[in-house]
Amino acid sequence: MQFSVVPPQVERLDRFLADQLQLSRTVAARIVAAGHIRCGERVLRSSHLLARGDVITVDLPEHEEPRRIVPNPIALDVIHEDEDLAVIDKPAGLVVHPAPGHWDDTLVNALVARGTTLAGGAEGRPGIVHRLDRDTSGLLIVSKTDLAHRRLGTMIASRKISRVYAAMVWGHLDEEKVTIDAPLARHPKDRKRMSIQADGRAAKTDAYPIVRLGPVSIVRLELHTGRTHQIRVHLESIGHPIVGDAIYPGGGSKRISGVGKQQAKMLEALAPRQALHAALLAFRHPISGVPLELRSPWPADLWPLLKAALGEDLDFTREEALSALHFFGTDG
Predict the structure, then answer these.
(1) CA 262 – CA 264 distance, rounded (Å)
(2) Can you tell me the distance from the alpha carbon of 29 to that of 18, in angstroms, rounded to the nearest whole number?
(3) pLDDT digits (tens, 9 = 90+) for 46-88
(4) Closest by alpha carbon to 280, among 290, 294, 292?
(5) Which residues form the catalytic set?
(6) Mean pLDDT across the stretch 146-160?
(7) Quick one: fold of 4-58?
(8) How many other C-beta atoms lie within 10 A of the C-beta of residue 309?
(9) CATH fold of 162-282+300-324, please?
(10) What is the Cα 212 distance to its own chain's centre?
């Protein structure tokens, strides 16, 4: 099995491979040591530094047969589809692609069951251009042709796809725009977590306050990069973790004192998962060049949380909430 990947920045081969294939560094190093990684005709070592624009080829042993993707008719909300790509409004709780523990209950399994053609991407994750965490909801692009996948990947790397998230966070941002520029890598002691590390992969997030609601705020988040758990780690690092985030809680409601303490406890109890939602995608179609702007409303499972935070009689519905709060700008 072979596939090629393009590293977005200078970094060690074993770290890049582990991140791209979701492997431990030990397993990635074992694959490299066995001589399965090449750049052109040259076999690479784990310590090799990949430069931006390098293309590497991964040759996995022939006896490791690709795992068949089992169709699973999970209901999906497809908000845009054409012959080159589809945009899915992913619900919280759905894993994006098959991996240990989730071989047959993922978004990819659901797309295969639906009969959606998927192309491009690594073995086992066909069509996947970018990912959302299991308990993050919202908009996700999948490719249906190899050409669309290549162009979409390049567009993401060059920030030609605007990916905007809505989140409810603890506390209030004091500035109109906060830029968090902090490199991320796997936590040295907990492989399920990410952490800010000087030698990690470059990661940058812009955060904009939208509305203050007692002990919490609704913020708009725009990605420069798309690292694993990026938004969640970055917000925790500046003292404004996402409400309901069990992995990066930053103290949760306990960080709130004074008159807002009881309301904070109530809101925390209402959060079924991290209050993070991919609300907007804007880009030019990779083949036709036609501008696309796709929006997703505040998710249903987080509606009781938002209503409680607003704490008043509402004159708008869940579907209208983000527009009513001017999350999308004055045109909303």
Answers:
(1) 5
(2) 8
(3) 778 877 667 778 776 555 455 678 999 999 999 999 999 999 9
(4) 294
(5) 133
(6) 94
(7) 3.10.290
(8) 22
(9) Pseudouridine synthase (3.30.2350)
(10) 25
